[in-house]
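Lecture notes, continued. The same structure-token format from the folding unit now serves as the input rather than the output. Read the line below as a description of shape only.
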């Protein structure tokens, strides 16, 4: 059996080595996972189609040993990718950090990512392990958006008290809850 694959999907203005991504990559590799953190194109001026194309080229076929951790805009990007997969190509799970599926008031430049709704029911039916993590003091994505996102995904909601938007400038260079959930999910 092939080792589990993890894809860490960064968000707006970020890249593969930002925030807690390198830490999670090293920790997941220590668990025996093959980890990829794709550099999505032009993260300062993201375009939905370009990000989907890049993810398609990077991930390829999905199976129950394929896992996704998304951050912010990377969450909806990962879920849209999963929506495109044919029947029988279902991921093992997703962990969404500071995710959202509706317009974020301070970031109208991201509205095109929300212009077509994603099929949450399809994700719920086809991806057995799902979790959403938010911070109650997130000053970029209001926590209520992440809460509604978790409800759409029928996913447990983990509200942390003081992590901001989970950025390195908020002191977030590690995110143990993601590793804890990932470890738990891959054992189930």
């Amino acid at each position: 059996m092939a080792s589990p694959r993890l894809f860490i999907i960064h968000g707006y203005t970020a890249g593969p080595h930002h925030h807690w991504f390198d830490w999670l990559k090293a920790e997941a590799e220590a668990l025996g996972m093959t980890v990829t953190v794709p550099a999505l194109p032009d993260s300062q001026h993201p375009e939905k189609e370009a990000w989907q194309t890049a993810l398609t080229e990077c991930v390829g076929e999905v199976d129950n040993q394929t896992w996704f951790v998304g951050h912010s805009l990377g969450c909806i990007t990962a879920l849209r990718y999963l929506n495109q997969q044919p029947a029988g190509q279902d991921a093992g799970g997703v962990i969404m950090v500071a995710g959202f599926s509706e317009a974020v008031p301070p970031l109208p430049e991201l509205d095109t990512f929300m212009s077509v709704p994603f099929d949450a029911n399809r994700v719920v039916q086809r991806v057995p392990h799902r979790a959403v993590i938010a911070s109650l003091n997130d000053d970029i994505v209001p926590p209520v958006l992440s809460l509604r996102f978790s409800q759409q995904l029928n996913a447990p909601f983990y509200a942390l008290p003081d992590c901001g938007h989970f950025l390195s400038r908020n002191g977030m260079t590690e995110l143990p809850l993601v590793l804890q959930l990932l470890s738990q999910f891959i054992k189930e």
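Point for the exam: The longest strand covers residues 129-135.
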